[in-house]
Design brief:
The protein is mainly β and about 170 residues long. Helices cover about 10% and strands about 40% of the residues.
Length: about 170
């Protein structure tokens, strides 16, 4: 069975609806008068769903991978803020870092991958960020300060074992 519509143009466009002719669609003069065969949409294969689940699970595992903060660097543990920079360093090695430059803001939340002296390398796999402790923590006027990437920050909470006090 075939049909022809007075609104159908030579290029298969519907003059009435201004789109490709599809008999029976909403707004078509044949709507409700005919029922057109529409093939079922293809479903995602179970293999593809399993592969997506596997990739997501591996990403979750990678996100939890990292090293703990070495005992020699426990004085870095805590929440630090100053002007346009902030960092949270947990003993477990989880680090949250943010920095503002003008109108842009960089935020990184990732596990500690490597520590070399005053250089902290955080990230997942080959996607890493380097944070430089340009001046290790020091005491001044009853406050603890540190310099990261050339910016001075004040410790607002100490995560060092057996301390846990607000500054």
């Amino acid at each position: 069975m075939s049909f022809d519509c007075k609104y159908k143009l030579a290029d298969q466009q519907c003059r009435r609806l201004g789109k490709e002719c599809s008999p029976g669609d909403q707004g078509c003069v044949l709507q409700g008068k005919v029922e057109m065969y529409k093939p079922e949409k293809k479903k995602k294969s179970p293999v593809k769903k399993s592969l997506i689940s596997l990739v997501l699970m591996l990403l979750l595992i990678l996100a939890s991978c990292g090293i703990e903060l070495p005992v020699s660097h426990y004085d870095l543990a805590g929440e630090w803020e100053g002007g346009f920079t902030g960092i949270i360093i947990n003993q477990s090695g989880k680090i949250s870092y943010w920095e503002k430059n003008g109108t842009s803001k960089k935020t990184v939340e990732a596990p500690l991958q490597e520590i070399d002296g005053n250089i902290l390398k955080i990230g997942l796999g080959n996607m890493t960020t380097v944070i430089e402790i340009t001046r290790m923590p020091w005491q001044e006027d009853g406050e603890t300060w540190m310099e990261i990437n050339g910016r001075t920050v004040r410790q607002i909470y100490d995560y060092t074992p057996n301390k846990g006090s607000t500054k």
